[in-house]
Amino acid sequence: MTAVRGWLALLSGLALVALLVGPAAAYQVEADSAGNSIYVLLINENPSASFDSVSVSEDLPGFVSSATASIVPASVPAQGSDLAAVDFDVGAVALGSTGDLTLTVSGNAAGQPVEMVLTVPLTVVAVAPVAQGVVGQGV
Fold this sequence. Notes:
Elements lengths: L1 H12 E5 L8 E4 L2 E12 L6 E9 L4 E8 L3 E2 L3 E11 L7 E12 L2 E14 L11 E2 L1
Parallel strand pairs: 2-9
Antiparallel strand pairs: 1-3, 1-10, 3-7, 4-6, 4-8, 5-7, 8-9
């Protein structure tokens, strides 16, 4: 039982905060565009365990032609934070097309595997705003 309590405390100590609008709204992207970016602020609220061996993977909707994790910290210190980013390109697609870009942030904390999944809804529009999102919105 102590091991379960410790594991739950470890998981509750790690937080993933995205600089995105909430799940009800979609991140707008332009058709046939390159260099779109999504930034994710990784916050480790655990007082004693760093979040190590961080990796970011992505599952792409059909209209996203490529994506690359451009910023991936090696670790996030205990009670610290760091930034991750994914850059992606959108192919030629009809306006109004929608799909989810799913990001998975994986790593280890106190020797235990930790994985957080963030779903980013995308909508293709004629002209997308230069900057979108909400600073500090939790997932």
